[in-house]
Give the backbone structure.
Amino acid sequence: MHNQADRPDEKWTEIELLPEWGEQFYDVYTAKKFGKWLMLKTLKPEFKEDPRFKALIEKEFDVRYNLAHPNIVMINDFEDVPGLGRCIITDDVYGDSLRKLIDAGKVTPNHVDKVCTQLVDALDYIQDNHLVHLPVRPETIIFTENIGNLKLIDVGFDQRENLTPADAAEDILSFGKILSEVIGQVPGTPAYLKRVAEKCCNPDPSKRYSSIHELRMALAHRSDNKVYIIIIIFLVVMIGVLLWLSSAWAPEHIN
């Protein structure tokens, strides 16, 4: 653990490594900047001097700096921090990772609900902005301490003009794995959620949900087909009423 004495004359204080939030190429820290808690994301020591990874962290900052979503941790700055080197600076997210909640057996129906709504909203935003990212995992999902909001801490390192069907299928798969793991922790979860998770995890990508929209409909326990059927039934009934009113059997108008 990397600690630094809390002295008022220092810009950065109380720097502490968060091993459970580490990523493939990055270490994640919490720290105070002029007394305000923030989070720091920096290359692991073995990658710091490699030009390829230096370009990677710079690209991630450029891609994420202008993003804004309530379920994604936002980036504030990119600067050198003593003892750590170049860091992406984000808002502090004080809470527990979904992995920690799963391992501790503390997943609740509220967490399941947030996965089915807020995580899906975040994935939708990521896809709308064509962000290339590593698979979403329980380790990169944080639930804030007081309100319990879901926050993603790893949302993309590149941006394309368009995402491919394979990219979308990968997000659906990642979501299915997460959903399957959390519903396994909560007795009495509706059976349809298990079916949704199983479809998301189908080994054949073409048999998964084709889009976040289709996934969202399934999670809401409805489908576009049901909506279309209701509309068709309504139209048929209305046409029948109009035909009846114009027929010889319709009641005469009373003046």
Q: What stands out?
A: Residues 1-6 have pLDDT under 50 and may be disordered. The radius of gyration is 25 Å. Helices lie at 51-64, 98-103, 109-128, 165-183, 191-200, 212-219, 224-245.
